[in-house]
Amino acid sequence: LEADISARIDEASDGAALEAVRIEALGKSGQISELLKTLGKMSPDERREQGPKINGLRDRIAALIAERKAALEAAELDARLASERVDLTLPAPPRRKGSVHPTMQVMDEMIAIFADMGFALAEGPDIEDDFHNFTALNFPPKHPAREMHDTFFLPEGPDGTRKVLRTHTSPVQVRVMQKTNEKPPSWIAVGQEPPIRVIVPGRTFRKDSDQTHTPMFHQLEGLVIDRGIHMGHLKWTLDTFIARYFETPVVETRFRPHHFPFTEPSAEMDVRCDRSGAEIKIGQGTDWLEILGCGMVHPNVLRNCGLDPDEWQGFAFGLGVDRLGALKYGMPDLRDMFASDVRWLAHYGFSA
Ligand code: PHE
Questions:
Q1: What is the ipTM metric for this complex?
Q2: Nearest C-alpha neighbor of 197 from the set 312, 107, 292, 321
Q3: Contacts of residue 15, Cβ cutoff 8 Å, sequence gap at least 6
Q4: Which residue is closest in CA terms to ligand 1's atom 4?
Q5: 42-95 confidence digits (pLDDT tens)
Q6: Ligand 1 site: residues with CB under 6 angstroms?
Q7: What is the pLDDT of residues 276-300, one digit of tens each?
């Protein structure tokens, strides 16, 4: 019997099988328990002889089971350790790295070019009041020009006026020139004395969405105020910028007469390009492409900002950053710029 039970103990391959063997041997009606029950019917002499034998058998089997149980548990632990081991030689999962958004890349390129020409950087708020976005810029009250910008208006404030999401960066012209008593946040440039030579990159907003318009877009404004400034300075500045931006010795440009309330005369500038292929090629071909608005700062704007137009003159321009970026780097649809599609961003993004 002992040999039979110990063989079965050895064969038990897991805890459950071992427990079954234990019940068969040592359980209430197990083989050894039944043997122990026979002691009661024995004569005292017989019992004195058999008792120690059967009890010894029970103790040895119990010890064997305990030993086997410990061995099985150790094996189980080993197996778990082996299966759950971290393999440090496996390659790490690829780490996704962010990239510089094309708009920001292009803005940095533009800022660097203008910094080279001696322009300082100015900023203004995205949420503007009517005065800076329109009135000070010589938009007559109730004039349709205010609607021309497809303005996003904010709800009426406690003072009964409605702020706007700025429709262009031109309000920062006013903030730079104007001397005010209010203390704006430190990042808003105010009250500079002429000569002024600033650029203003920033977000702008209009209710517009198609292949070449997005409701949020970026402009870069330029403003120069000094004595004796004329349109020749404006043309040279823009021609120099365009050639450097498109990394060509010269790009042919032309001024087309236009109207802005805040400049007089006003012009739109076109660049020479080839639009016959899928991608627009700048600086060659027979087509023209409009890229910015500009002009001489209107005397009324100078006056609104506390400058005497008989002493100070200036020019200003405003260009679309995203659109110039799309032109340089060949993006067919401006809306993709702000769709936050990581595949697009990975394809067109720039490494930091
Ligand atoms: N603010 C004008 C626009 O958004 C561009 C512009 C800027 C025109 C400065 C003239 C001078 O269309």
A1: 0.98
A2: 312
A3: 69, 72, 73, 76
A4: 168
A5: 888 888 888 888 888 899 999 999 999 999 999 889 988 888 888 888 898 888
A6: 168, 170, 221, 260, 263, 293-295, 316-318
A7: 888 888 888 999 999 999 999 999 9
